[in-house]
User: What shape does this take?
Amino acid sequence: MDLTYASYLKIDQLLNLQEPRSSPPEHDEMIFIISHQAYELWFKLQLHELDRIKQDFCENRLWDAIATFKRVRTIMKVMVEQVDILETMTPRSFNSFRERLEHASGFQSSQFREFEFVLGYKRPDMLRYQQAGTPAYARLQQRLHEPSVYDCFYRFLEHHGVALPAEFQQRDPTAAAAPNEQVEAGILRLYQTRPELEILFELMTDFDEGLQEWRYRHIKLVERTIGSKRGTGGSLGVEFLKKSLFHPMFPDLWAIRHQL
Assistant: This one.
């Protein structure tokens, strides 16, 4: 059988993945399902691209890293804009089917936790919200213990003459990325002397800002939809989400802004 657009993209299977639970049907459940499935696809693509960036950094491929950061930044902009679609759903329309979600919650998205882990925002305690023994849990364990994008960025900086602190040689890969004055001094020097690296650093900062913007839009979406209620399945709701709102993924790039 000849390959077609539909068979290559598995269109029939894709369009059968939406299974609303409301009976009688609630109109807005479909937009809720499709939007969140789309986010999971974007997370999958982001993970795919960030793994490429890790390789680019470790192998000192500057222009490849620049090209891929342009891509992940653009994907992040689409993820932010997609919140506009969900915000067309009113609190009343969401509550019309909310109870059908039972214990299901976006808080349980293993791919989003992978996304955080691969960027270097590692919180081992988040594993307790995942189902042990599943392939998703195994992937998270792997992400937790492998070098992050930021760990690979340290290797990239070494290629360009930045002397890393001695303790970085035995750095615990499960620890979250944190600012370091010695690293910041090296980045600042590269900013001032290597314009091609400035392009990369600004793309990284732009991506980081986009992620913080997405967090903000997500929080306001949740707040306008359910207010101060706990999330579905007893998830922690708006107050928990606010704790990571202004957490940068690339802290050293933010720490030097006043010196540029």
User: Anything to note?
Assistant: The longest helix spans residues 195-226. Residues 4 and 10 are 10 Å apart (CA to CA). Residues 26-87+147-259 form a domain with the Methane Monooxygenase Hydroxylase; Chain G, domain 1 fold (CATH 1.20.58.480). The mean pLDDT is 89.
